């Protein structure tokens, strides 16, 4: 997802409008982005905000198989491996309290949004939930 986000950032910075094809060997990322209604993390939302900016541009996200000797996929894999051995900037460790407060904030946000089922919106008497017995 980071690579897709950086690609879209590059496209926007250099104003490369027209038909754009983004190929990824990560099937899970493509499937995650296809289900855009369920995307709630920051990186996914950044991607969709960039896509909204490119609304007049045709953007194709396509999965390609990995490790089948595709030239540019092999180049991308080798660059990713090089990136993993580079020195990383100092990353602050997360304490229990920081993790707890982040999770609590996510839970609070989820409680503020009403659930999508139609029977949650019934306000009058007689609203019921029907379950079929096993």
Name of the CATH first level: Alpha Beta
Biggest β-sheet: count, sense, barrel? Answer: 2 strands, parallel
Per DSSP E runs of 2 or more residues, the count of β-strands stands at: 2
- Topology-level CATH name: Nucleotidyltransferase, domain 5
Determine the strand fraction and express it as a percent band: 5-15%
End-to-end CA span: 41 Å
Helices, by number, come to: 5
Strand order of the largest sheet: 1-2
- Percentage of residues assigned to helices: 40-55%
What's the overall average pLDDT, rounded? 76
The unreliable regions are none
CATH architecture: 2-Layer Sandwich
Compute the gyration radius: what is it?
A: 21 Å
- The oligomeric state of the chains shown is single chain
> What's the overall geometry?
globular
Supply the number of structural domains: 1
Broad structural category: mainly alpha
Order of helices and strands: HEHHEHH
GO molecular function: nucleic acid binding; RNA-DNA hybrid ribonuclease activity
Domain RNase H type-1: 1-85
Organism: Araneus ventricosus (Orbweaver spider)
Protein name: RNase H type-1 domain-containing protein
Spell out the blueprint of helices and strands.
Blueprint: H1 2-13, E1 20-24, H2 27-34, H3 42-53, E2 59-63, H4 71-85, H5 96-112
Parallel strand pairs: 1-2
